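Minutes, structural biology subgroup

Action item carried over from last meeting: produce the structure token record for G-protein coupled receptors family 1 profile domain-containing protein (Capra hircus). EB confirmed the sequence was re-checked against the source entry. Recorded below for completeness.
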Amino acid sequence: MEGENCSSVTEFIFLGITNNTVNKVTLFTMFLLIYLINLLANLGIITLIRMDPQLHTPMYFCLSHLFFCELCYSTAIGPKMLVDLFAKKKSISFHGCALQFLVFCIFADSEYLLLAVMAYDQYKAISSPLLSVVSMSSRVCSLLMAGAYLVGMADALIHTALAFRLCFCGSNESNHFPVIYLHLSSSPALIYR
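Output recorded by EB:
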């Protein structure tokens, strides 16, 4: 990376979607409503699965973790987006951006791995219905869940560490919300538009 112009970025500034107050209120109301419905639906389903003993099966165990992942990765981004709609200084620190990216990636990656675990559970239930209770015991389910979260965390750490080690070129201002584009030229650079 010798010879590159790597400037140090300490924060990213969001210019906002619109300056029109009416549009801001409409967007805020719409985003808040979507976020609250998402939050209440996920928490409601998780609570229902935990409280009803008939739903203590491997499939519902996986579903509760799937809804937990969705709850966490929408919470990683949603509140900051809502606050920045009306904030005078719409910015996020470099480390805050990295942390937000890491949390989002952990739960997004874990969600995909949990879908694979659920597919395996269904495969076992279809291929050997009488043995599926034994082969997918609560211990096996717990180990598969722990494995999904650990692999999701490792993958997210690798992606975050590699993405935030790259050079940031151009302006640190974003017209809307941060979108990171990888510019692959002779020397990789991270362009933040």
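Discussion: Strands lie at 11-14, 91-93, 168-169, 173-174, 180-183, 189-192.
Next step: EB to file the record with the rest of the batch.
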